[in-house]
Amino acid sequence: MTQELWNILTKTTDWVKYSDTKAVLLLTVHGVLLTIIYTNADSVYDYSFENWFTILLTVLIAGTTITSIVYSFLVINPQLKNNNPTSLIYFGHIQEKFKDYTSYYLAVKDTFSDNQKLNEQLSEQIHINSIVAWKKFSMFTLSMRYFFASIILLSINLLYYFLSR
């Protein structure tokens, strides 16, 4: 059973990493788009305030883009909370409670001589990592939705620009 729990813990940890990677990629795309807009700032500014429709689109694009960026940053923000102060698996408690590897080794040896205690702590860490992964993916989903909304609004804005010229 212990090996299965380690496999599950590895998978849930990977899900946390996947969400972080996706959020960083989305932030990179935002950065590229904002750089393109910034390099053409004068003409973008002039067009954005041309009439009420372009002002509305600009405000909506800015709002959805900022919201997407905020959610992406929330995804990559580390969540360093584990409510079990006796956890010998959570890195935050290990660095906090043990001065060196010898004291940590002795604590692990004493606590995990019984596989049931190890399985309990592994199960607890799996549960905590699952909560973290779920929150991160939920925020990433919102970030992606706002990103696509901003892309659709930007496309409408570009279409309006080219058709009005």
Describe this protein's structure.
By secondary structure, the protein is mainly alpha-helical. It has one domain (2-164). Helix content is 84%, strand content 0%. The model has no long low-confidence stretch (mean pLDDT 89).
What is the strand and helix layout of this fold?
Layout: H1 2-39, H2 41-48, H3 52-76, H4 91-97, H5 101-111, H6 115-164
Helix pairs in contact: 1-3, 1-6, 3-6
- Count of β-strands: 0
Output the radius of gyration.
24 Å
Shape: elongated
Write down the overall mean pLDDT.
89
Order of helices and strands: HHHHHH
How much of the sequence lies in strands comes to: under 5%
Number of domains: 1
Number of helical regions: 6
Q: What percent of the residues sit in helical stretches (DSSP H or I)?
A: over 70%
Low-pLDDT stretches are: none
Biggest beta sheet attributes: none
Structural class: mainly alpha
Our measurement of the CA-to-CA distance between the termini, rounded to an integer number of angstroms, reads 68 Å
